């Protein structure tokens, strides 16, 4: 069998999948690009070509800039908190102790919950009149009286980030836990004999094994966080006073509530572009770390 | 290869459909409702069951979404070729739906009995530029609910007749230590906030649009927002109102934590149900108050109608279903959570029994119903106004500046 035939056969075997992918990803993407240069409405008119108008309007509007900033903060804060909590949880669950397997199983629970269920749950927890968080903080004396968490611009985004962390840190923890199984015990033991402290052991023995897998977790979570929609839609619908209106919420509003399919498409494509840039940058970083180790 | 698989699948599906088809041909219609305020899901299911019993050749597939999803779901289904035959729509959407041809014009189907029997104000719910796009179904406005026990303890003999009086009475209740924040509203960043705002706009004699241009940033429109901000800042209003929807207001009122609350008809019988309300038997209801020299009562038109989508393949069956749901017999039977659209129902003792107070408030309130602006760009206008309301309440902007920005962003 020649090399040529192997290549041809590989392409032939992949052909059905490629056709399906072009049909469900390629075509909608091309159509969205076409839409973004028109003033089409969601229903009614097909719209006519307007050139770069939509992009100019979107990029120069204060709505976009504000939403971009909100999305940025949401992504940075939630992902970094998830990484730290996830690694700490993984280190804990890597220790031998009684009930470890029960805890490992329990940890998956938040991650397995549908986002909408999680959002509804946290909305109840944050309820200003009878929420569990208020009850807890008042009972332990950290708060004098019940307060509004999702109704104040100062706390709404932070409250959303906490809810998102609770749901998503288990993914990071799982990936880190799996990576920890690869850390050779003899090296850890040897470093202890050499007098390395807890921090040095983590930094120079454990972390190099974790770096690659954590990079993958970081990529997945950042892209997800940048696209965040459902948890916010259920909990605040972008309020109060638009303080939690992320880019995806803005796209939804533009394309579906206001039915401006054209400018909605241009906004969606800008978001896609941002996420793609992030993904490519991360991919390069991963290759670099993989090459280094 | 793919094609033969498709053909095989298609054949199998058709065969299965043929085998499972009932003895008589059944038409299936899909209907979209909301699960929030007005008729409960259980009521709608019971009404529909009566309909299918009377029309065994039609089956109705019901779907319920929260109010916040109703508009987008309808439009999205339409954008992708349809799916629903009958949709519930809010009074603020006919302009947009008519412009984008989402609903069928049913003006010709309306009988003289309907024309003369239905309250004139109810028709505005389904009209745009002289055409009718459905039948009104939920006739609703926001009423002022009050807790009789708390008012009595505060020594207040009668509920307020003006908004200023409402503030005075709330202050008495607050000062006497009966409740720290006596008034509850639904001021979340949602349509609910605009319904409360519109009620106040009508009280202050304001208007939204004049000659196609926004005018809510001055006069009555500005007075209305100023009232909200003052009530919020003075601590008379529950500060959590800014994240409440109607159901949150109902829970607070039912727990006896509000002396006054603005809400739709449905709260009356729910708050009077001892099963899950602590204030059953103490619920008072009056039309929303007026402003001295300007109005005696105020009300927002919060009615909703049932229409046939333009993509429906069974418009006749859909119309049959709509006429059944809106018929006087059906509406009189389920008059506890939503009041009938039929004028003579209000004098029917079977309808008013046990809710005389609500019927009395309805007679005054429904007659004063003030419309939210009729424009195809309503969603943009409303979104801009919601932002103005929230920014003003949070003190990020002065009401005047916030409304001015809203006028600029309203798309008008």
Automatic annotation (TrEMBL), chain A:
Family statement: Belongs to the binding-protein-dependent transport system permease family.
Domain of life assignment: Bacteria
Membrane topology, record value: Multi-pass membrane protein
Assigned keywords, A-Z: Cell membrane, Membrane, Sugar transport, Transmembrane, Transmembrane helix, Transport
Major localisation: membrane
UniProt cross-references to InterPro entries, sorted A to Z: MetI-like (IPR000515), MetI-like_sf (IPR035906)
Localization per record: Cell membrane
Protein name: Multiple sugar transport system permease protein
A Pfam family matched in the record: BPD_transp_1
Domain spans labelled ABC transmembrane type-1: 68-286
Source organism of this protein record: Phyllobacterium ifriqiyense
Ranges annotated as spanning the membrane: 12-30, 72-93, 105-125, 156-183, 204-223, 265-285
